[in-house]
Amino acid sequence: MARVEIPLGPQHPALKEPANFALSLDGERIVGAAVNLGYNHRGVEKACEARNFTQCLYFLERICGICSHSHSTAFSMTVEEVAGVEIPPRAQYIRVLIGELERLHSHMLWLGVAGHELGFDTLFMLSWRDRELVMDLLASICGNRVNYGINKLGGVRRDIDETVKETILKVMDQFEEALKYYISLATTETTLAARTLGVGILSYEDAVTYGAQGPTSRAAGLDRDIRRDEPYTAYADIPFQVITDTHADVFGRVVVRALEMVESCKIIRFVLDNMPDGPLSVKFPRKIPPGEALGRYEAPRGEDVHFVKSNGTDKPERVKVRAPTLANAASYAVMLQGNYLADVPIIVAAIDPCFSCTDRAISVVDNRSGREGSLDWKALRQYSIDWYRNQGVAFDGLNRKG
Amino acid sequence: MSYTEEELVARLTERFPSVTTTEQRERRIWLTSPREGFIDLLTYIHDDLGFNMLCTVSGLDAGEEFQLIYHIAHDCGIVINARVSAPADNPVFDTATNIYKGGVLYELEARNLFGLTILGIPEDIRYPLPENWPQGEYPLRKSWVLPADRVPESDEQDTPSEDTPASAEGASPPVIASEGEAEARQSTVAVASSISDTAQNPASSSPAEGSDNG
Amino acid sequence: MKLADKIMTWARVKSPWVLHFNSGACNACDIEILDSLTPRFDLERFGIVLKGTPRHADVLLCTGPITMQTEERLLRIYEQMPEPKFVVAIGTCACSGGVFNGCYCIKGGTDTKLPVSAYIPGCPASPAAIIDGVVKLLGSLQE
Q1: Complex-level ipTM
Q2: Whose CB among A178, B92, C29, C62 lies 3.0–4.6 Å from C91's, allowing a Cys bridge?
């Protein structure tokens, strides 16, 4: 049987430093790429088996510090299905509200990270400043900037009253105004386009083959969004557009995320205008009858899948979580191939990976000279900014210090 | 292209009579198949029915047997959950990566965490376990428990562990931050309005005055 | 702003260069650290500079629990830092292992491996708490 192409490394086990990315170069072009994905494995699924369902809920929220509500809601939905419990409509709407606010903060965060990787630090500062509008909102609604804890099994823990509603609407006015700038930046800024067009291509076919998710796949024209394809919580009632693009490159991923933020603002307004009255939660049993269920949620990065099996006790028999970054990371080898070493930072960042941005190490082998070396991420980013600056492509004119 | 659940159940049952096919609810179909013919089943699901999105593969330790469940979705929103099992004393499966190429990561994960054999995927890749994880330990097996000497030290312990480097120059007792955010936590309206002042002029990056006393 | 004046004094006396290392975190604390560098919180006005290499760093900011994968790397980084050096545990996971204690790849909080000079709890630690903790550390160094 032919060996299946495995996009995992390291390719050169002789290197002492474990590399997150192992690249083979021909001159400055990448001819092979392998990714080490296991370094963030903690043992969460096993730990769930020793916790009761409620403990699991707040535990799983902390799998990822950006899409915590995604995991919390996906888990709640799945467990509620196993238990045969339907949560009240008002709770469904509140889950949507927080989920879309999370999408806003996540995409803004990504925009800043992308800017930082490109050397466009003003974009980083501006987008993270505007992101604070959403962070403050989440903190005032839920009590925390991250790990909101809004969900409980059976519903939600906090209500959206008239004062909160007015605050959200006011922030939406400000945020939508700020968004105009980012959209025009994303779609018309020539330096940004020069750094992202044609870079990190993942074709429609490859996106399907490797199971790419979320904006990464929608930028290649895949018309998939769990909110529409398999509406959960209250999405069946809510009109919105699924944003796709055909560029299939990093530029496409920028555009898709920028326009998705506009849609999220519309969804938030609709939710506030149409929120049904009623209770926030229903009673939920401590022990859940035996059963299995699969839950799917459209997180900012793509599909988040939770599989839960119960055995009649108050602890799960099995919890399986597949976060979207894992599905997207399988495409890295294809996306990196054929690009310049200087494109690595933005290509890696463009799937919006949910792993630490600080400690990625790269090992590089130049096939022509046979030389091997390793780079830390900061050195690679600087190399990339300098390399493009030498070609006349730089954000120096746009980066202002005040 | 869209299906109803009934239609799918009918087609699968007719084509694969040895496979138990049930509709759990709207958009969820569950299959249980013996190992024999499982790859043909997945090929049919992919090629004939057009289910081309493998969401993930869940491994299960069911005591007498190990199970793999392939969760496969279609654009219309229906998910087929295809389960295959093997006896616990000889858990051998066949890879589905010739059909679902991107599924190699999920199969590796199930294989390495449960200690299964999946024919057709590289044996030397230990993903997701770290390189220094002991060989022969399969943490997701129900029978596996974290050995006592690897349980993290509890909070009650005051003395540092023996392999902690000596503290620098008679270090003062550790500082513990209070939740200083009480001062910084303003009402959302106040903060939002101060940020909006700077939002009028994106070229300026000076922070709003007096809005944050960290 | 009295507090800011005090901080400016310390900053003139000692402007710490910090290195940030994530030993297994979910990223929330890492993002809040980066957030504290953005204009709203602006950690840099206190003279705190984020460095890329241990050889120039005075302070090591650790996030996340220590995992099997990162343990050796963390120790090596600490050893490469010149004296005097200080370690700050940011976030509940770095303080004590947090919710991840009991997970099979987790060793515990930062202090299972390194001497910690300041603990900044929170899940995640907010930018305000991070600034508060770092400022307190600077203050204790003055004494």
Answers
A1: 0.92
A2: C29
